[in-house]
Structure formats: structure tokens, C-alpha cells
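Sanity check

After download, print the first record. It should look like this:
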Amino acid sequence: MTETSAAVTGIGLLTPAGIGVMAAWEGLLTGRSRAATDAALAGLPVDFCCRVPDFDADAILGRRLSWRLDRGTQLAVAAAREAVADSGWDPGRWNAERVAVVIGVGSVSYDHYEKELGHIQAGAFEKVSPLAITRSVPNMAAGEIGMDLGARGPNFGVSTACASGATAIGIALGLLRAGSCDIAIAGGAESACNRVCSVGFGQMGALSGRIHDPAGASRPFDQDRDGFVLGEGAGVLVLERPRDALGRGARPRAYLAGYGASCDAYRFAAPHPAGRGAAEAMQAALRDAALAPEDIDHINAHGTSTPLNDLAEFHALHHVFGRPPAVSANKSLLGHAIGGAGAIESVHTVLTLERQTIPPTANLDSLDPQIDLDIVSKEPRETPMTAALTNSFGFGGQNAALVFRMA
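Expected C-alpha cells:
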């Protein structure tokens, strides 16, 4: 593998399908949606979401750390710890000044903002936590991972809306290529299962309104799709130069070969209807990886289940690939983790190549007649693969595509 690629030597994952890489992967392969009515959203027009089950931050991180972090940052730190352990690195033995952290987060912590704003509106200023700001600013996931693991190299919080996690991984690849670090801990995290997100996205018309059928609500590319489902989670990769990874005896799980990014420059919350920017990001990622469209065996779609986004993504895929390879859409099972989604889907793409198995898409009962794609539905598909591409698109027209190759 060329030195323009990065070896993926470790992965960490927390999703509504499970805590830890193996539990989350096996849960994904069941094809069962994790969407369910949520007590924290009671009384709202949309009262369901996809939560990480039984996540006990005190038990996983320790109370001394977990108490000062918002939930999204808790998930990020837990995933980073798993990824570093999986890589075989001992943080006490690496050159800390050469370890970068790049984590994508789509927004501030609305849970804490809502609580603290309530105190302010009531005039109870003394009840506002001194952690009100540090729990909420988007860079704290990267900062806390750096502190937790003793990584003192470049440290960035990246925010490109729903493309944040994928963008962060792409930036990390650039840092390695530029020689700015020797190890990059990269990914994304978010917890969007809160009242502000539910009402706000709902007012935009972005959420599914299937309140009597939460498990059937997220249905990418289906003709009856009506919006996405809020979710949460974190995905983190450890990236190294191939020669460094192999030199220390590490076993790469896959290689990150290419990254492409673009902006639709069209509308703030709607994709270009022909998928112009999305296509440009995919083409850039393929060029960066020195691969042709026919070299890609699988596409992990952004697949939000919104009417406009799915159709635009189809047009983009058709433009780039002609007849695209097999497609899957993880959000149908896990909901949309916003800034964490692209990183979660990157970890899934690594596992897809490693296991030579494409996870299923849930709730595809009747393919939209305007969409002509080979979508892996209901059951996993075992098939030979050497390279895969994953897409992430965000508000502001920001697009990111990543190409991974089998190790």
C-alpha cells in the first residue's frame, strides 16, 4: 500500500446497535431498527429516536471524568479509548507530541444549553453550572480525548454538520500525509436525542413523523420515506502511515486511500437536486485514491431517508458510477447521529471490507421508482470486495467522501 494511504490500525464504536465494535457490528447485521419511543422526548410532536443502549458513562469512563462531559463527548472518549486499545498502542509509550486528534461534532450540546437557559430565564443565575460552556462547545470532544489519552499533537474539533465525522477523518489523512503527526485519532460523535433537536429538525420537516411505527420510520430510498430519525453514537479510527504500522508489527484492518470534499453552493438545508456537489466529492475521493469508479465494490450511502436527499444522492451516484455497486444505508437501523454519522459509517465500511459482508438496509419495502440502485436489504450480503466508498453530506451543502481499501 502506498504511503499516500493511511493504515487503519484501530477502531472504536458505540451505536444504538451496541457498545463496542463487535456488539455494534453484530447488532447492525441483524437488520433490526433501534428506533423507539423515548421518555426524554415525551409530549413532543416526534417522540422517538435511536439511543445507545445501557450506556453507563460512570462505569465506562469513571465518575471523575464523566460528570464534566456532555453525553456526546462521553461517547467520543469511550470510542477513542477502544480504538487506541485495538491499535495496540500504549499511550504511555508513544511520542505524545506526534499524536493528533481530529473529531467531528455537528453542534453544541443542546441538552445542557436547554437546562442552563432555563435557570437563566428563571433568574436563578447561581444554579448555572460553571461547566455550562465547556460541556457545550464543539471542540471539547477532541480536547477531552487529547487529555484522556495524553495526545499532545494537533488537536481539532471539526464541524461540517452531518458531514463532520467524515470530514474529520479526511483532515486526519491530510495531517499524516503532510508529516504533521505520526498517529491520528480521528472520528466523530454526537447525541442528537434531545428536545431541541427533535423540535427543531421537526419544524424543518426533516424528521419522520411515524410516531406510531418508530422502528419503520427510517426507510432510505423507499418510496414512502418521510424523513430521518434522530440518533447518537461515536466512531473513531486510529490512522498511521503504512510503513510505521507494519514496522511496529501492527495489523492494519483496512487502508484509508482517498478523501474528497466539496460544497453545493446551492441552499442552506437542501441538497443540489442533481447531486452536483456530492458527485464532485466522490470524484475527488476516487482521484485521491487513484481508483476508477469500477474499482469500488460497495457504497455506504449517506441515506438519510429524506425525500430530497436520497434522490439527490441517487443522481450523484448515477453520475459518478453509471451503474453503482451494491449500496447500504446504516441510518435505517441506527438513526442519524449528525456529526457522528460519517465516522460511524466509516468504521462500518472498514468492517464491511474486513468481513467481506455488506450490512443490510432496513425498511426498504418498495424502492422509489425514481431510484435505480442495488440496495442490500433485509439481510447481510457476503460478497468479495477490495474497495468501498462512504458518503456524508451536511447542511450548508458540505459533502465528504472517503475511500477505503481492504487490508
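If your output differs, re-run the checksum step. Summary of this record's structure: The two ends are 9 Å apart (CA to CA).
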